[in-house]
TrEMBL record, chains A, B:
<dbReference type="InterPro" id="IPR006593">
    <property type="entry name" value="Cyt_b561/ferric_Rdtase_TM"/>
</dbReference>
<feature type="transmembrane region" description="Helical">
    <location>
        <begin position="29"/>
        <end position="53"/>
    </location>
</feature>
<feature type="transmembrane region" description="Helical">
    <location>
        <begin position="145"/>
        <end position="167"/>
    </location>
</feature>
<feature type="transmembrane region" description="Helical">
    <location>
        <begin position="179"/>
        <end position="203"/>
    </location>
</feature>
<keyword id="KW-0479">Metal-binding</keyword>
<keyword id="KW-0812">Transmembrane</keyword>
<dbReference type="GO" id="GO:0016491">
    <property type="term" value="F:oxidoreductase activity"/>
</dbReference>
<dbReference type="InterPro" id="IPR043205">
    <property type="entry name" value="CYB561/CYBRD1-like"/>
</dbReference>
<dbReference type="GO" id="GO:0046872">
    <property type="term" value="F:metal ion binding"/>
</dbReference>
<keyword id="KW-0408">Iron</keyword>
<feature type="transmembrane region" description="Helical">
    <location>
        <begin position="223"/>
        <end position="243"/>
    </location>
</feature>
<keyword id="KW-0349">Heme</keyword>
<feature type="transmembrane region" description="Helical">
    <location>
        <begin position="73"/>
        <end position="92"/>
    </location>
</feature>
<protein>
    <recommendedName>
        <fullName>Cytochrome b561 domain-containing protein</fullName>
    </recommendedName>
</protein>
<dbReference type="Pfam" id="PF03188">
    <property type="entry name" value="Cytochrom_B561"/>
</dbReference>
<keyword id="KW-0249">Electron transport</keyword>
<keyword id="KW-0813">Transport</keyword>
Length: 261, 261
């Protein structure tokens, strides 16, 4: 009985006694996580700056459709990149938390991303209808549609499987454990699709707003739009690096054991 | 001595005696590899069809700059998607080959991708210069530039480290083994950047060639351009799935042992 208690404790957190991390590894970890945090917050801040400085801010009114459109890039970047990015990285950032808290934070960050994506989508749909522009004709909209669909399915499946099914903790442990890699793989795919949707959207916006000729002269606004794209690419690179680094992951024994919570 | 021989043999191939694959696993493997092959060949075929059917084919002449431009999407899709895609998947497709042959095939596929990317880049550079259009102003060109740079670095590093350093096989084994995950991670990143460059490029091309109004009516050519983009997204999903599936990988002991070759 005395022996079982510490094992139980360890299985519920990301901390592993067996694998002490060296100073060098901690430095790399801290550096990469800080970089990811700065980029994830920075890309949304840059999008808001672009909107206020070059596109006259936000609105939701029939007589100001252009300002209403501005909600679309801002909320989609916030939803698909900033909140979703943090939500993915939580499993690497909060290594010393109990797993149930990380799960709840993961769900909360996605719950923050959800209204951003829905309102961001409604903003452009309403803008198109007000201006008499067709919906869902461009490659950007097709990618975005698939990304939104995957996001919704992932959220519903994740919420029911990893939170609600905890009511029947032991009976569903195997099912939940087998679902983890599928949920993780589709989560990364949704994130990458979100990145692709943002990049094609920024390309469209630059050409629609600046026009091909002005854009080719690379005015200040063009640089800002490109910089948002570059920041998204940098986030993609950092997220892929962090996710692929086994050393950043919780100990594999902990991961398997902790699926019970 | 008798015992060492079969171990040596196994360490040089992807075949593992310890892990026999079930019928279900083989079915999934065959299905996914077939799907990847069809998509990788299909996307290049579709791009060539688009060029001949809607864009009047290819040329490299001062009086036909538009036809010269057509080399750009075709060769970039061939280089960054088809050849690079096969090159990445070789490590999952050729599981029963000796590792050195897989390495050589990997190098050959990248050697095929290399001139495609170089000529594809020169085609658009020359087109821009002939038409008096600025170079490297768009987000697409920035992403493409980074993707090309990474591709070049990866090729040089890979060629020297994993092929030339075999001259000093034992002395460099540890160095090469430590380089494998870095080379693999940057390889996937290069592939994803290639995908992003293709998608933003297709968006630009649709808007430049069809114009915003015609594109929004979704003419046949718009559907074909979008279909190329969707095929690229499907390839990305399948490649990420195959790469993430541990079951498709060679046995981990084989992987470590086979780094000697």
């Amino acid at each position: 009985m005395v022996l079982r208690f510490p094992f139980k404790q360890r299985s519920r957190s990301y901390e592993s006694d067996e694998h002490e991390r060296g100073a060098c590894e901690w430095c790399e970890y801290a550096l990469v996580i800080t970089l990811a945090t700065v980029l994830l917050i920075g890309v949304s801040a840059l999008t808001i700056f672009w909107t206020f400085f070059y596109r006259e801010g936000y609105a939701w009114a029939d007589e100001l459709p252009e300002k209403q459109f501005n909600l679309h890039p801002t909320l989609m970047v916030a939803g698909f990149i900033t909140f979703s990015g943090f939500s993915v990285l939580l499993y690497r950032i909060c290594r010393c938390f109990r797993r149930i808290y990380v799960k709840l934070l993961h769900a909360i960050f996605h719950a923050l991303a959800f209204p951003c994506i829905v309102i961001g989508f409604l903003a452009v749909l309403d803008f198109h209808n007000k201006k008499g522009i067709n919906n869902f004709y461009s490659l950007h909209s097709w990618i975005g549609f698939v990304a939104m669909g995957l996001f919704g399915i992932q959220y519903v499946v994740g919420f029911f499987s990893f939170l609600l099914l905890l009511i029947c903790n032991k009976g569903t442990a195997n099912f939940r454990a087998s679902l983890v890699p599928i949920h993780a793989a589709f989560g990364i795919l949704t994130f990458v699709l979100g990145v692709c949707a943002c990049l094609t959207g920024l390309t469209e916006k630059a050409l629609f707003t600046l026009g091909a000729e002005r854009y080719s002269g690379l005015p200040d606004e063009g640089v800002i739009i490109n910089a948002i794209g570059v920041a998204i690419i940098a986030i993609l690179a950092v997220v892929m690096y962090i996710v692929s680094r086994n050393k950043f992951k919780a100990d594999s024994r902990d991961m398997t054991a902790s699926v019970d919570l």
